[in-house]
Amino acid sequence: MLPKQRQCCGDEMVTRSAVIAIANQKGGVGKTTTALNLAAGLARLGYESLLVDLDPQSNSSLSFLDLRDIHASVYDWLVDNTISNDQVVYHTSFKGLDILPSRINLAKFESQMAGQFDAPYRVKDRLEGLRHRYKFVILDTPPTLGLITVNALVAASHVLIPIQSSYFALEGTDDLLETVEKVKARPNPSLRLLGVLVTLYDKRTTLSKDIYKQITEVFGMQVFRTTISKSVRLEESPAYKEPIFTFAPESSGAREYERLVQEVLSRV
């Protein structure tokens, strides 16, 4: 069945949503896996959720949609004010979860915005017309600290940082935290660090345990108790266009993301 574009709803939510940016300028740390499964996990509990794909690689979008069915994407929405929200928001097959997809043309965003004074505020401004529909908006960001990630941090109420349990886990984290502090200093003083999530964790290895200890020494109580393990089922689920909760509901990955959702709910 083809995904349906979102039509304006009559039972719109009256409270403002929490907007959670999943950010780390390093690639391969589980940003997209976390974004799509966190959004699905929240929707699964009855919280209307919107997943916004801000990565030109479009991996979140490909996890739910066929690119041939995307007629307007987040790039069009950001650069053309005549594009309505209903033209870019799509229902997924997962109840309660909508997606605002990206395509490769999002890579042009930074050059397109050069010299425009409102460039860092585009996502925030356009989300204003959508936040009342959703309890949670999850922003999947690209592996850079460029204008798109800055837009996500300016628009967000919270930032969640996934860190891979590997030897170079904390490399580059200082740059991300510096960017977060700069955003908090001026355009978004209310931005909060929701937590640090250790991903690709292998409890069998001493290295993973040592890295987890290092991360907790740096971030303390901001580290989620939940860790996300390396999992073949988590890697396979996007290929079948399903979150882990429907693809492998009895898997360790599903149980871990269930626990993460509960921790997120206790912190927002």
Describe the protein in words.
The model is unreliable at 1-14 (pLDDT under 50). An eight-stranded mixed sheet has the order 3-4-2-5-1-6-7-8, with helices on both faces. The protein contains twelve helices and eight strands. It is an alpha/beta fold and 268 residues long. 37% of the residues lie in helices and 17% in strands.
Please sum up the structure shown.
The chain has 268 residues and is α/β, with parallel strands linked by helices. Helix content is 37%, strand content 17%.
Q: Spell out the helices and strands N to C.
A: EHEHHHEEHHEHEHEHEHHH
The tally of beta strands, per DSSP, is 8
Question: Can you give the mean pLDDT?
Answer: 91
Strand order in the sheet with the most strands: 3-4-2-5-1-6-7-8
Please report which band the strand proportion falls in: under 5%, 5-15%, 15-25%, 25-35%, 35-45% or over 45%: 15-25%
The helical percent reads 25-40%
Biggest sheet statistics: 8 strands, mixed
Shape: globular
The helix/strand class is alpha/beta
Report the span from N to C terminus.
35 Å
**Poorly predicted sequence stretches spanning 5 or more consecutive residues:** 1-14
| Gyration radius, rounded | 17 Å
